Prior knowledge:
alpha+beta, 310 residues, 3 helices, 8-stranded antiparallel barrel
Amino acid sequence: MTFKKTKLVLSIATVALTMGAALVSPQAMAHKAKKSHHHTSAQPSYSKVDALESQVRMMQEQIAALTAAQTTAAPVAAVDTAKVEELDQWMASVKAAPVIEKTKDNMMFFRGGYAHANATRGGTLDPTTVGTAGNRNGLLNGPITDKDAWYMGAGFDFSLNNNLFGLMDDTEVLAELMFDYKELGTRGFNGISGNVANAVNIAGLGISANTQRATVNQFTLAASPKIKFMKGSSFRPWIIPVGFEINVISPPSDAITVLNPGMQFGLGADYKIWKDIYIGADARYHQTLNSSDGVRTNGLTAGGYLGLGF
């Protein structure tokens, strides 16, 4: 469009210059003739002719400037055309690229399932056995024999890296913070059995025995690195190489100890069912370094979870 306007201006200027030259030439010739025949007469005013000559010169200068501008505008137009073509190519590549749905990398999950302890639980429910000469066993409660439990809990996954710190593509590293509550199926009297309590009460000693039942449970707080594979896929397996956990036992041990630190190892997988909602399953093994005054919390948990991305 700029070139067309420039050509139009040049054409108009050329026509005007031609007409001006045609008008100036006769008057200039007449002026010369008069000068040759009347040397002694006063010179008339030729201001109109001079003004016309000045306008013609100005038009010539403008034409020269327009011609120079047209010469320098050609490279600029070529650069603009190249930029437009480059932009068109970029837009075409963007449209042709596959659409990748962005997902939320962090997750909050709620879990629950089955738990199993490797050893029977001791503690204040099984104090040292006291008997009589005829019966040296069984006056007080023995150890908790049930090893099975159920658990429920929740946790958070926080994304740290998307390529295993440069070692493997599409392999995400997350930090997991999790807690759960385990409850054993067996409940026992706290300290002595009902038969012993009845015997004490019948003796008329004025002693009221404590026969309240205690709930045998455990609270676990754990922090672990989690390696999650196949980023961008709806199905994503994961592993926990090793994590740290601390267990709170109730009732306490015979020495009234309640804390028992340990480690956990885990594996599992989750599947995105809709938007940022996931379902998954996991299994974990819990290992303590030593017993907490006779109480061990080694065992496994296995169950499912519901996750929400954020």
